[in-house]
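stage 2 :: seqdesign
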């Protein structure tokens, strides 16, 4: 049986604007006292009118441009109806047929392009907290998060393994962060991942789609996908049930048990009864505005990594260091300094052997001095001196320990006095005892 996983991803990212999407309440809600950042608009009280946050719209354009999208000149908001207690209005203001951005892509290291269908802007929901109060099981609701600007990035189902999905997610995360419009801190729930998974079997059979909701780490996303692929193949072997309209389901991921579990049958677009939001007029995003935002885009992570590998830094270190501008500046300076191997310097910084707050050049010199940290290099020098002086070695072997001084002197000469004499003596005795 030939199986090919098919994975698409929805990524939700909270923007770091000062205020919420449709009102003036503060958008940053992490760790705040529940229900202290609300108003009639984000509580969904009757008659309250939403006013779109211009900064959030511009930020979404920025993310779209960074993801190689086209920006729709004509865009509008839509109502997505669903009843859920953390969404007081009974609907979410989102976007349906005219998202702000469409048709982008992210390129994986293999060169494979993962297409992005759309990037749209919506509002986040409140948060439910299931707890026990006075011995009773209750659910509390906190509306601080309700109405926070939320960007949704939807990919095509172009990934064929958990690893590809993970790489895509890491790239999206790095790109979004580099734009500066979102912090995307996964631990704070500022970026949430939803893979949709099914499996192609023997080239012509497809297992039913499963959407895995609200995952908050790249590793969990990858584990959940692997688990789901295995589960779906087993399920197909047992039941023969294939994908068809209406049999998409939603599952959660239990990171302790490392399994996915069923949640509910997935609504389809028609169930949401989308219609254009009547309280907000359509928007026109002029080329001028888009051009202006394009000019503010910083260099993207892959470009930064490439500029480091171009000057000789190993990709492994480039990927660790590219985002720290002070380190990048140091590496660029080092490139033109004599006697400095940029890759070695990158290695030492990446491995935290050099502290960039202090004198980097001195630390580099100290660390790379023969014999100080690099015993392997020193051993080669000692070995050379020993094998060039067979007569002195035989004197030593006959018991003439005075010749040790001669060897140490030779090694110091070979290393221009850079070696640590104590280390030299130790290594020398070691090598001589093995030559006996
Ligand atoms: Zn509000
Ligand atoms: Mn959404």
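stage 2 :: out
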């Amino acid at each position: 049986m030939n199986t090919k996983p098919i994975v698409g991803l929805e990524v939700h990212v909270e923007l770091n604007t000062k205020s919420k999407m449709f009102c003036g309440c503060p958008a940053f809600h992490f760790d705040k006292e529940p229900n202290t950042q609300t108003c009639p608009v984000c509580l969904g009280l009757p008659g309250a009118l939403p006013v779109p946050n211009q900064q959030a719209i511009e930020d979404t354009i920025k993310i779209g441009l960074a993801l190689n999208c086209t920006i729709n000149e004509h865009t509008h908001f839509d109502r997505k109806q669903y009843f859920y207690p953390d969404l007081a209005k009974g609907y979410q203001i989102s976007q349906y047929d005219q998202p702000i951005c469409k048709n982008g892509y992210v390129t994986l290291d293999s060169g494979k392009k993962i297409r992005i269908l759309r990037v749209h802007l919506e509002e986040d929901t409140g948060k439910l907290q299931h707890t026990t109060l006075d011995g009773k099981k209750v659910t509390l609701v906190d509306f601080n998060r309700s109405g926070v600007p939320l960007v949704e990035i939807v990919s095509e189902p172009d990934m064929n393994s958990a690893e590809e999905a993970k790489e895509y997610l890491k790239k999206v995360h790095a790109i979004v962060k580099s734009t500066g419009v979102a912090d995307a801190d996964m631990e704070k729930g500022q970026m949430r991942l939803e893979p949709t998974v099914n499996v192609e079997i023997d080239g012509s059979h497809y297992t039913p789609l499963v959407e895995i909701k609200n995952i908050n780490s790249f590793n969990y996303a990858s584990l959940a996908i692997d688990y789901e692929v295995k589960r779906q193949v087993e399920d197909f072997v047992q039941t023969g049930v294939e994908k068809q309209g209406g049999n998409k389901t939603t599952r959660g991921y239990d990171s302790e048990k490392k399994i996915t579990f069923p949640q509910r049958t997935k609504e389809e677009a028609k169930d949401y009864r989308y219609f254009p939001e009547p309280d907000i007029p359509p928007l026109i995003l002029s080329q001028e505005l888009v051009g202006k935002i394009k000019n503010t885009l910083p260099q993207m992570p892959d470009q930064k990594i490439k500029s480091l590998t171009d000057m000789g830094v190993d990709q492994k270190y480039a990927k660790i260091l590219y985002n720290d501008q002070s380190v990048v500046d140091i590496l660029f300076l080092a490139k033109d300094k004599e006697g400095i191997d940029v890759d070695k310097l990158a290695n030492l910084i990446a491995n935290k052997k050099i502290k960039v707050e202090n004198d980097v050049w001195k630390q580099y010199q100290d660390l790379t001095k023969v014999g100080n940290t690099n015993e392997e290099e020193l051993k080669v020098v000692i070995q050379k001196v020993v094998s060039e002086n067979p007569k002195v070695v035989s004197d030593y072997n006959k018991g003439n320990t005075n010749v040790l001084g001669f060897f140490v002197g030779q090694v110091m000469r070979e290393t221009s006095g850079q070696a640590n004499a104590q280390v030299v003596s130790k290594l020398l005795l070691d090598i001589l005892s093995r030559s006996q």
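stage 3 :: structure notes
- Residues 59 and 367 are 44 Å apart (CA to CA).
- The mean pLDDT is 93.
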